[in-house]
User: Which sequence fits this backbone?
């Protein structure tokens, strides 16, 4: 806030009292010691010339994200993707967790990719879906998709969350249910790629 | 940080305020305020109204469906691409060119509602068939006649009449920045069977976020669709990669409805 006179104003012919002076002076000092804000600045007082280069916000884009090769069994024809010999269920954290040095403020996170999964009639499970979520270690899950039953589609997650100053990373996690009994170990059933993750910190 | 701690002189009861004392007290203020820094300024110390140079360089929003009617594209086949022209079309145009600098971040979001198609052969959840809606941009022409594939993206916009089994390579684990697809929106072909129509009823969210690597001038975006493709591994003639493949010839009707897009260009950010 700007400095507001609260202790009265000296007028002609008045004799200033010691406590009036001390109180007014201390009020001014308190403002200067940590309460300066936009109210102290005139409108349009700062332009690019006064700002340090790229001072307003920090951004990070990581693209080329796709299923980790450790969950991928190659074929020479047909389906490509995760099979039950490599994955048995549960949340999997992607090996790339983009991070950024943040200032105290808000962190805007967007993730998008496209994914394919096999139909229930092929894998023998009546509840075949996949889902994604974003996790910031120390803060928890910041965004989570619903169960997605569509066999191919784009996925989009977005979240805005307050963060402290320091480095913050965003983990991408995916999940696909385990099969019913009788499914083949080499049955491919899930794949994602076309992944991109945007982080913007302190955008105003 | 700058910190004023006026301890040199404090007027007390029953005493006269001395000129020397006042001078020293205000000198403390003078010295301290010469070094005001971010510790003295609250977290929201500066916001948009204090800034005379905006950080949103450009913000546009577009709705292509002012006429409110769905549009059917006829005889659709993956052999060629189709511009989304229904409603008011889906162009973002910067007639004078939008000058972008290295470090600017572009954010393009779009959704187009696919209502239906009429090809029962791809109404199969296990078929791995898909349509793609994708943007292209123009960096040279004020009249938007030089549309280019997005940087590093796989080119699915190849000219018409491509032959069957044409593969469009997808990014692989060891690829170096090519064949990306994150700026494209993928649509399933599976849907609700209603008479002769497969009602897909979906509007996947397409996103393209991009940091401008060097100065360029942007004249506009235009949106297209292509398909149906088949997602599969392609191995033939020495080629071996995952791909979207033009696998079967169709002459199908595809109906799109509402479409929306938004675009932001941000400046002033650090990496």
Assistant:
């Amino acid at each position: 806030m700007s400095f507001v006179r609260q202790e009265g104003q000296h007028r002609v012919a008045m004799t200033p009292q010691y406590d009036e002076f001390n109180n007014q002076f201390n009020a001014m000092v308190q403002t200067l010691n940590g309460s300066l804000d936009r109210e102290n600045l005139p409108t349009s007082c700062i332009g690019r010339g006064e700002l340090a280069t790229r001072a307003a916000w920090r951004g990070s884009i990581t693209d080329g994200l796709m299923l980790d090769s450790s969950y991928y069994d190659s074929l020479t024809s047909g389906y490509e993707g995760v099979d039950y010999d490599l994955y048995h269920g549960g949340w999997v954290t992607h090996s790339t967790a983009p991070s950024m040095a943040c200032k105290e403020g808000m962190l805007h996170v967007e993730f998008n990719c496209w994914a394919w999964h096999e139909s229930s009639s092929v894998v023998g499970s009546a509840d075949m879906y996949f889902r994604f979520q974003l996790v910031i270690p120390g803060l928890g899950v910041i965004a989570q998709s619903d169960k997605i039953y569509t066999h191919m589609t784009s996925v989009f997650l977005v979240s805005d969350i307050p963060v402290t100053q320091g480095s913050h990373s965003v983990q991408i996690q995916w999940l696909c249910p385990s099969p019913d009994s009788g499914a083949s170990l080499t049955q491919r059933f899930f794949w994602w790629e076309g992944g991109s993750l945007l982080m913007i910190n302190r955008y105003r | 940080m700058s910190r004023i701690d006026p301890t040199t002189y404090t007027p007390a009861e029953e005493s006269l305020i001395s000129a020397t004392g006042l001078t020293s007290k205000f000198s403390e203020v003078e010295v301290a305020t010469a070094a005001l820094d971010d510790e003295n300024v609250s977290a929201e110390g500066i916001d948009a109204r204090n800034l005379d140079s905006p950080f949103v360089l450009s913000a546009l929003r577009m709705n292509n469906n002012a006429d409110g009617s769905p549009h059917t594209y006829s005889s659709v086949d993956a052999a060629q691409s189709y511009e989304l022209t229904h409603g008011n079309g889906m162009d973002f145009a910067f007639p004078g060119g939008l000058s972008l600098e290295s470090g600017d971040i572009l954010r393009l979001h779009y959704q187009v509602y696919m209502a239906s198609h009429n090809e029962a052969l791809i109404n199969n959840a296990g078929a791995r068939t898909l349509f793609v809606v994708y943007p292209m941009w123009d960096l040279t022409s004020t009249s938007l006649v030089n549309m280019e594939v997005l940087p590093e993206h796989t080119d699915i916009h190849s000219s018409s009449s491509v032959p069957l089994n044409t593969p469009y390579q997808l990014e692989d684990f060891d690829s170096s920045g090519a064949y990306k697809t994150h700026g494209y929106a993928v649509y399933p072909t599976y849907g609700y069977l209603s008479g002769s129509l497969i009602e897909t009823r979906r509007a996947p969210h397409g996103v393209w976020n991009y940091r401008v690597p060097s100065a360029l001038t942007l004249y506009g975006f235009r949106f297209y669709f292509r398909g149906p493709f088949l997602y599969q591994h392609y191995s033939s003639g020495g080629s071996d990669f995952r791909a979207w493949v033009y696998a079967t010839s169709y002459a199908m009707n595809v109906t799109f409805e509402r479409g929306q897009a938004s675009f932001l260009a941000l400046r002033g950010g650090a990496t």
Summary: Chain A touches chain B through 74 residues (CB under 8 Å).
